[in-house]
Sequence to fold (147 residues):
Amino acid sequence: MSLNNVFDIAGMGMSAQSIRLNTTASNLANAQSADSNTSQVYRARHPVFETMRTDMLNNNDMSMTSITDDAAVGVRVSGIVESDAPLVRKYEPNHLKADKDGYVYYPNVNVVEEMADMISASRSFQINVEVMNSAKTMMQRVLTLGQ
Fold:
């Protein structure tokens, strides 16, 4: 692997963690939204990561059928899925969104879990930035070797 690949790999990691941060922010923003209809209640979303391999990058093949024993060289988000955890049902007869029985349905967002995900994604993003900075410093030092 050349030093130039480090920038590609760190960039893919930063992109994936950015999407993870965006979905976490969306989950936290909608954590207290309520509705009387269970089909319209917000459901927590989570990105699904997929390892990219050397052969997938070189051939621009985005299917996992061409995996060989090559080392992993990056990550991408293959999709975003909705959580299938049960919705939170609360008895609040005075709520504007209460159904005929007085129940209100809240999203299946666990705020503590989302905060932990946010910290983890933020730290992973920062680590990829540090990798890029280290690679840049190494390349600059290589350029000064001939002087």
Q: What stands out?
A: The first strand starts at residue 45 and ends at 53. The chain has two domains: 1-31+45-82+109-147, 32-44+83-108.
